[in-house]
Amino acid sequence: xxxxxxxxxxxxxxxxxxxxxxxxxxxxxxxxxxxxxxxxxxxxxxxxxxxxxxxxxxxxxxxxxxxxxxxxxxxxxxxxxxxxxxxxxxxxxxxxxxxxxxxxxxxxxxxxxxxxxxxxxxxxxxxxxxxxxxxxxxxxxxxxxxxxxxxxxxxxxxxxxxxxxxxxxxxxxxxxxxxxxxxxxxxxxxxxxxxxxxxxxxxxxxxxxxxxxxxxxxxxxx
Amino acid sequence: xxxxxxxxxxxxxxxxxxxxxxxxxxxxxxxxxxxxxxxxxxxxxxxxxxxxxxxxxxxxxxxxxxxxxxxxxxxxxxxxxxxxxxxxxxxxxxxxxxxxxxxxxxxxxxxxxxxxxxxxxxxxxxxxxxxxxxxxxxxxxxxxxxxxxxxxxxxxxxxxxxxxxxxxxxxxxxxxxxxxxxxxxxxxxxxxxxxxxxxxxxxxxxxxxxxxxxxxxxxxxx
Amino acid sequence: xxxxxxxxxxxxxxxxxxxxxxxxxxxxxxxxxxxxxxxxxxxxxxxxxxxxxxxxxxxxxxxxxxxxxxxxxxxxxxxxxxxxxxxxxxxxxxxxxxxxxxxxxxxxxxxxxxxxxxxxxxxxxxxxxxxxxxxxxxxxxxxxxxxxxxxxxxxxxxxxxxxxxxxxxxxxxxxxxxxxxxxxxxxxxxxxxxxxxxxxxxxxxxxxxxxxxxxxxxxxxxxxxxxxxxxxxxxxxxxxxxxxxxxx
Amino acid sequence: xxxxxxxxxxxxxxxxxxxxxxxxxxxxxxxxxxxxxxxxxxxxxxxxxxxxxxxxxxxxxxxxxxxxxxxxxxxxxxxxxxxxxxxxxxxxxxxxxxxxxxxxxxxxxxxxxxxxxxxxxxxxxxxxxxxxxxxxxxxxxxxxxxxxxxxxxxxxxxxxxxxxxxxxxxxxxxxxxxxxxxxxxxxxxxxxxxxxxxxxxxxxxxxxxxxxxxxxxxxxxx
Amino acid sequence: xxxxxxxxxxxxxxxxxxxxxxxxxxxxxxxxxxxxxxxxxxxxxxxxxxxxxxxxxxxxxxxxxxxxxxxxxxxxxxxxxxxxxxxxxxxxxxxxxxxxxxxxxxxxxxxxxxxxxxxxxxxxxxxxxxxxxxxxxxxxxxxxxxxxxxxxxxxxxxxxxxxxxxxxxxxxxxxxxxxxxxxxxxxxxxxxxxxxxxxxxxxxxxxxxxxxxxxxxxxxxx
Lengths: 222, 222, 248, 222, 222
Ligand code: HEM
Ligand SMILES: Nc1ncnc2c1ncn2[C@@H]1O[C@H](COP(=O)(O)OP(=O)(O)OP(=O)(O)O)[C@@H](O)[C@H]1O
Ligand SMILES: Nc1ncnc2c1ncn2[C@@H]1O[C@H](COP(=O)(O)OP(=O)(O)OP(=O)(O)O)[C@@H](O)[C@H]1O
Ligand SMILES: [Mg+2]
Ligand SMILES: [Mg+2]
Fold this sequence. Notes:
Chain C has 248 residues and is an all-alpha fold. Chain C contains 9 helices and no strands.
């Protein structure tokens, strides 16, 4: 069991590393989106500071969204997914490994770079600290929820945009609690409540989505 | 020649329509992204109005970006692209047809819905009018430039995010001229200069990118 | 006992027969409720001391808004039944509710925004409740899109059931948004546990309307479900006998 | 290699009762019944499009039949999916190979998924298997760089990794050269002699000696 | 159908001089020379991985050889790609069929791309072709719903649409049933009798009567 978890984790990480470009990219994409804003909006410092946490979270969300497909699509196309489904290992465990691999590749870089970008956009120190925690708690939820979305759409021949439609509304709670927490921190209010909600979302999603995704995959493949 | 252009255009539109959901989705995605902003940033009317054109253009950009892959990837995977390359029709013509089909599916809805959303975000009437023109001139450029990006990356097995990296910087001029025009209009200044630049970009990209994409494809396939 | 009832209800011919017998009653009740609610709301209830007569849109808006959440809960519940017990009827209820829920949500959005113009001075503000209601609309549309994107309708129903269950997290967020964030939108006035802060003469028609909406939903969903059921089971024995009986 | 292997301990009978599958409002096949004992081969025949692949996927539990059920040792496979999958190896039309992993990495993943009787770290065994399937000097080649036939061989290797008593093979001989075909025929023969079962489709003749081979023609049942 | 067709007017000779391709720092093949006249078949043989597919792609102009060149009527194909493509039909490992188009729509696109001699709107001809390839009642079926062999038949139909004198076929017989194989053999025979050329790989024996068939074994040249 543990071995199965580890080998799938390792496999997905190797696959990402092998395309070295791939590994850099979710981060670069994230940075690029954040950079677009001053370009599209203009560089007024007060406005930028005000909207910094929002921008960073939205960029995190989009960069997760853009890379979701990799969780299952290629596995579906080359038949690996069938083999996992008929394997002698519990599917939800394999899916958990895939979710975590996806987070390491796309979420972790955002957690590390996000606060830095916020600094450049002029966010206050308290704000940045809270931003970091919200990213740490929130990004795995994005990968987890996303896995269900991909599992549902992977059987469709071109599900790319259906996927966004399904997943974005489900991402909104994370976005709301996170930006609430950062706003509160920046204004000097306590942040315990939204952080607690984020943690709850994290636990809930990590424990439930692998089952949901596994059920969805069985449906998609059949 | 004309027949080839038309049948490819028709083919790509049929492929999009056949997934009825697909046809609606670039638009829905666009709306969703715009909606995320008030959620992530907060609902202060003055700020929202100030950043409205930026938001809409960034959403248009991302929605084009997300759907770019469809221009060539599936054709690559099922071998249709090879067949087009060895066909007795000029490849750049076929590519032009594919670019226009992509614009009709993803760009046109944005042109139509964008101004409406700007209204909800509180943009002034002059601003909205100019926004409409910038979208009309700018979105085909996104499809055209995108086609070169996809052509370059379609040979990579999972190029999703590499693509964004290639393409986003090329999208920046469009973004800058467009938001410049809308800002000018909202402030009551003349908009002729940036609009002229956008038109130049449009002509340039529609006449050059089919060749570039065709060369890139030949390389990607070999 | 309950399980047996559920299973019995899950049998298509039984469901078809039962719903056929229920429908006339439901329609009658629904009509009466609507008549009473509208009369009470538009004629009997006094004008609001602040809003004058424009408050009367409450009788459309609030029940529609409640229904938008209620229908989703029904869908999630049927989704669970469809997945756990593989009950066909639950699948059918689920997918046929999506369109109705979307319509209610749309109605709540439109009436809310019509009401917002005199109250807040704009059609739309980006506050938490309004925005999250808009997202609920997207959730419904996502469900419909997913269902129509999958060719095999039995597969599609299962997919949609999973999605509906996962989407349930959004419901409490919409419901509590007014409490969690200070927003422009009305706080809970009716659904508070202690004494509702609203005149009873306004309240009673509102409740009547709420029930009328529920019956309306029940009627529409049953009609659609019966249709869908006949189509899906078109080659089964009971449908054949049904039609030969009707034909004869 | 095949000579020394012991008989299977968990070989059971595979039976199918009244199986029927419907596609696009038309019965693909109906009333399929068979009862396959250990040491028997079932050769599925039928024209293109007669439903062979569909039937195999039903036998694997990947697709649910519209009527009837599949039984392993008289228990429905849906009620014992773990035990059944432990006894099952499936090679489908698509290979289930990750193109971005090397040959050895692919094998390792397959070993863990099927709870192989061999140690993942056992280089000796890996070498033996590779030699058998004719990929001895390709260990560290990416599967992407394999030819069509080499990939097919790698896919077949999955059958040799654990003591699964039931092999389900969809056109195992496509793209193989003469040596490859001979090897697979020998492998199947050894498998049967150890007490295994096999269900096979193949448009090419299969040359397996001394084995009870039932034929089932799906074109006839339609 | 085949009987009544006139001889090709533009059949020329296909020659190859000193062709060599390198993969991963190893010569896949070197010094390939041949000279194929009208009315001749070249049967490429060789073990799995010996480079047959690679050679065929070079002949099509899809891949550029590392040494040597391909000549059509003694002119390098790179210098006359339009004229050459007009004379060429290629059926590769991947089918080049769009899964989301119906059978007829796929045919129509292929007709325009190859500048077919038939009118796209000619129902009679389309019906004839479909009947020949055994898909007569599948006109309006999505290609996605075809079986492996049915897709292969549809892919082969491309050869029947225009008067291309050169057929390049990579494993045309895979996944086909007996009737399908017989049909393709007849089609090739008729093609040769009309003065055409064909380059074919196939691990299964090809049964074409009264035709000069040269064999080239790539395993020997490696
Ligand atoms: C587009 C704009 C609006 C939207 C999307 C909207 C949405 C909603 C929703 C979803 C609910 C149900 C909440 C629940 O049961 O948890 C609701 C209830 C309600 N809305 Fe609105 N609303 C809008 C505008 C307005 C306006 C302008 C008013 C009046 C000032 C208003 C007054 C109410 C009242 C009184 C309730 C009942 C609250 C309760 O007791 O639960 N709404 N609305
Ligand atoms: N891009 C590449 N890099 C390295 N090696 C490659 C690459 N592409 C192919 N090869 C190697 O080239 C060889 C020839 O491949 P090719 O597909 O031409 O073989 P083939 O003769 O068609 O075999 P088959 O009968 O299995 O279809 C294989 O051994 C493969 O490993
Ligand atoms: N989702 C679907 N919807 C409608 N028809 C389908 C679907 N999937 C398969 N079919 C049809 O079912 C039939 C059986 O397909 P299947 O792949 O099982 O055939 P097969 O016997 O394996 O053929 P082959 O020898 O060509 O591999 C085909 O005629 C195909 O058109
Ligand atoms: Mg098959
Ligand atoms: Mg080959």
